[in-house]
Amino acid sequence: MVERVLATTEALALIELLKEKHGPVMFHQSGGCCDGSSPMCYPEGDLLLGDQDVCLGEIGGSPFYMHKNQYDYWKHTQIILDVVDGRGGMFSLEGVEGRRFLTRSRAFTPEELQELGLI
To answer: Can you tell which superkingdom this protein's organism belongs to (predicted)?
Structure first.
């Protein structure tokens, strides 16, 4: 089964650190506004989800969501959560760790698109 969202080894390590400090966490791919288009990490349940939020899957045992309008643009790509040095979004849990989550992506192959039912 093709996964819509993955995480690098470095991202998984940071997720584990955040879970040790804060308990279960969740992700929501920001669509802009205050923190740009960064993947945001929150204590699980702190961000109220609506019926327009799509769960793309789990990374490190943590759900990853995106608003449906944004998903419509990204549905042909696999999201790859990565980590880079520097301060992240002011609302995201990793901000104080000196690292920040970053979204990378790659286009699905025609075979993957077919498996996902997108063609």
So the answer is: Bacteria
DSSP letter (8 states) at residue 24: S
Letter for the amino acid at 56?
Answer: L
Cα 11 from Cα 104, distance rounded (Å): 12
- 68's enclosing H/E stretch is helix 68-74
pTM over 0.85: yes
CA neighbours within 13 Å on the CB side: how many for 14?
26
Helix (H/G/I), strand (E/B), else coil: 101? strand
pLDDT tens per residue, range 57-112: 999 999 999 999 999 999 999 999 999 998 766 688 998 899 999 999 999 999 99
CB 68 within 8 A of CB 17: no
Helix, strand, coil percentages, rounded to 5, for the chain? 30, 35, 35
